[in-house]
Design brief:
Distance between the termini: 82 Å
Helix content: 25-40%
Number of strands: 20
CATH topology of the largest domain: Threonyl-tRNA Synthetase, Chain A, domain 2
Strand content: 25-35%
Shape: elongated
Radius of gyration: 32 Å
CATH class of the largest domain: Alpha Beta
Largest sheet: 6 strands, antiparallel, barrel
CATH architecture of the largest domain: 2-Layer Sandwich
Number of helices: 9
CATH superfamily of the largest domain: Threonyl-trna Synthetase, Chain A, domain 2
Structural class: alpha+beta
Length: 385
Amino acid sequence: MNGTKKLYYEEPYLAQFCAKVLSCTPLPDGRFAVVLDQTAFYPEGGGQPADHGSLGGAYVLDAREENGTVVHITASPVRVGETVQGDVDWMRRFDHMQQHTGEHLLSGVIKSQFGYDNVGFHIGPDVVRVDVSGPLSCQDVQEIEQAANWVIWQNGPVQVLWPTPEELADMPYRSKKEIQGPVRIIDAAGADLCACCGTHVARCAEVGAVKVLSAQNYKGGTRLSIVCGMRALRDYTAKCENASKISNLLSAKVNEIAPAVEHLQNEAEDLKMRIARLETELFDCRAQQMAGNQQPVVFEENLRPDSLRRLCTALGRVCPGVCAAFSGNDEEGYSYALYDKDGDVSEFNRSMNATLNGRGGGRGELAQGTVHASRAAIEAYFQAL
């Protein structure tokens, strides 16, 4: 079968077209594989997802290229031999064009300023992932982002080139792999020259903006998460809304919420220290009340694991044998701490876990974990020792 005529290469802004149905093959999952003589549906490839839309009323769920032929995956069949109208989901297509072109500009700036290669690229439903071959500092990322946006605001053209082999040999273009046959080159306003099969905007200003959301060390290089165009606007809008809500909660101006949160954190740390001191006093009092008891067991409400440990060790200072502290309820289970200042609690802990449906452990004099048993069952276990 001859390859499909690729209208998305000739006119990436084409969202409606007509084509003849060459084949429609049922698939095992109930969907259909449809081949047309020509198509404006971009098939998944090069990190860019496939277009969605409809063919003669049949929803296009996916599109992929197989040996030069574009195969459309549809939810229902179309009649072979008929001419059908194709409607590309334009909002999805334009979003991909914005993201893909924005990635070119960012990768081009990184290549020119740092010499790093783009070694991974994928347009996800929310963010675009870009992997580059070298490390980037926070300052580097800020400067790269600013430079890429400056190219956008200059609004240069994004051109598609099909150079001859001789012309290609003299081009300093980016490519992740060796390409056989004609090579499609994207010239993004002179900021990037890259072998690429995707769809792009005609001029840089249509990208709108590129924003780097995060940068992480990844396999010796850097993984960037970015958004462009409408995605960047949505991200900014969401963050403004969140900042406004936080501003109202803190009674602070939007541009002053960071120091207000820092102040709250400091207050919280002070409160944690005060609570810890008061807990220590309470635990010491509780321990003195039980001084001399053999293998004491206590229950306290709403204690964190660290607090349980301190309560249990307070008991162990004045009581012989294995001391136990529990916190929780019958429905959700209990957290526990075991302590024996004179011995190893690991064997005791294993036995208790087996009887009370517990998990956890430790070494030496201390063990911690959880049990899923009632308070009555826990008390009965210790009374039987």
